[in-house]
């Protein structure tokens, strides 16, 4: 007899829940999970390999539990006068966010975000036994400082997620919203800047708001701008006391010696690693312009992807693209689809495939 999930003594609050499940299909043009589709440049790859080879010689020992060198490298990359005692890192920013929730959410507590937003926030929240609360955005997916503060003040969550720019909509968030939300709550305010490097260069980071705000935390990832999704490295900046809270919940030695070596070596080449960002932004803007010309309704994006409306049958368009070897994302917003900006060739393949589909039939 086949055992079903329901037959197991699973936690009641996890029954009926669905796991994260973006399709991983081996299609020639995969633009569905906002990866950087450019490979790591050759000269950086060589350096990373050397660093991993060196670390491998001591892999019989546990790694530096405090990943001191890596934290120093992140502080250097982020600037803003940050020092390593204000930095944390883990296996992807998903794990970074999980650490925050383990320390500040959990049973009897709540976390809050403005819907639609990154689909892992509710999953991570519920994973710690906390409850997920949803706020609202305007029709164009923006949220004003006044409305954000009002909603957070009313919901009184223990943790607030502000995704800046927002996934899956690409929507910009300005610093006044973050300041207003911080002032409206006694809880933790997480600004998820996973896509910050794709925003206009003169847009200030929420890192500028950290001084004097010990409940504010800014998370980042190497998965997007750094083309390092497979290495699984995310990080954050916050008050040193906040970092102490995360030490209470992390697993000992959670960042492997090989991960630490690879990430530190990659950060030593930040300029080269980030060189593709401007190209990706050019492709993103080309996607928006072409979508508009095709009669779709793309939203303003400060990230490496574009959400577009005006799709009569998203499931059907998604399937037609799939048949043409192009994988994008149906994120469940009626009449909308999302596509990540790829290389120039991948982007052309997507736009040509889409143009060949009659979305109305
Ligand atoms: N935050 C946002 C807004 C994201 O879109 C993603 C990945 N799609 C993550 C965090 C997690 O990224 P990672 O775990 O690869 O760092």
Automatic annotation (TrEMBL):
It is an enzyme of class 2 (transferase). Its EC number is 2.6.1.9. Pathway: Amino-acid biosynthesis; L-histidine biosynthesis; L-histidine from 5-phospho-alpha-D-ribose 1-diphosphate: step 7/9. The modification N6-(pyridoxal phosphate)lysine is found at residue 224. Its cofactor is pyridoxal 5'-phosphate. It comes from the Bacteria. Residues 29-354 form the Aminotransferase class I/classII large domain. Pfam families: Aminotran_1_2. It catalyses: L-histidinol phosphate + 2-oxoglutarate = 3-(imidazol-4-yl)-2-oxopropyl phosphate + L-glutamate. InterPro entries: Aminotrans_II_pyridoxalP_BS, Aminotransferase_I/II_large, HisP_aminotrans, PyrdxlP-dep_Trfase, PyrdxlP-dep_Trfase_major, PyrdxlP-dep_Trfase_small. GO terms for biological process: L-histidine biosynthetic process. Keywords: Amino-acid biosynthesis, Aminotransferase, Histidine biosynthesis, Pyridoxal phosphate, Transferase. Homodimer. Belongs to the class-II pyridoxal-phosphate-dependent aminotransferase family. Histidinol-phosphate aminotransferase subfamily. This is Histidinol-phosphate aminotransferase. It comes from Microbacterium thalassium.
């Amino acid at each position: 007899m086949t055992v079903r999930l329901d037959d197991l003594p699973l936690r009641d609050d996890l029954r009926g829940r669905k796991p994260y499940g973006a399709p991983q299909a081996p299609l020639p043009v995969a633009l569905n999970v906002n990866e950087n589709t450019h490979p790591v440049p050759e000269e950086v790859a060589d350096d990373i390999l050397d660093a991993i080879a060196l670390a491998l010689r001591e892999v019989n020992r546990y790694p530096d539990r405090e990943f001191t060198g890596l934290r120093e490298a992140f502080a250097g990359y982020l600037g803003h006068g940050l020092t390593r005692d204000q930095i944390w890192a883990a296996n992807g920013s998903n794990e970074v966010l999980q650490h925050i929730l383990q320390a500040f959410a959990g049973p009897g507590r709540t976390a809050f975000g403005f819907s639609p937003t990154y689909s892992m926030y509710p999953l991570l929240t519920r994973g710690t036994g906390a409850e997920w609360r949803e706020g609202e955005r305007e029709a164009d997916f923006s949220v004003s400082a006044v409305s954000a503060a009002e909603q957070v003040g009313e919901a009184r969550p223990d943790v607030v997620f502000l995704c800046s720019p927002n996934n899956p909509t690409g929507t910009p968030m300005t610093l006044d919203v973050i300041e207003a939300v911080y002032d409206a709550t006694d809880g933790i305010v997480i600004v998820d800047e996973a896509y910050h490097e794709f925003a206009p260069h003169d847009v200030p980071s929420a890192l500028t708001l950290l001084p004097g705000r010990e409940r504010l935390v800014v998370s980042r990832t190497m998965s997007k701008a750094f083309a390092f999704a497979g290495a699984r490295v995310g990080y954050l900046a916050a008050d040193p006391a906040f970092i102490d809270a995360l030490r209470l919940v992390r697993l000992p030695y959670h960042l492997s010696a090989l991960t630490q070596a690879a990430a530190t070596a990659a950060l030593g080449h930040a300029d080269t690693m980030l060189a593709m960002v401007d190209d990706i932004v050019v492709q993103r803007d080309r996607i928006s312009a072409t979508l508009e010309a095709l009669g779709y309704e793309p939203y303003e994006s400060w990230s490496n992807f574009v959400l577009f409306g005006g799709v009569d049958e998203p499931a059907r368009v998604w399937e037609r693209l799939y048949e043409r070897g192009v994988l994008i994302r149906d994120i469940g917003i009626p009449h909308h689809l999302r596509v990540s900006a790829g290389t120039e060739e991948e982007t052309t393949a997507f736009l040509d495939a889409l143009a060949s589909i009659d979305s109305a039939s």
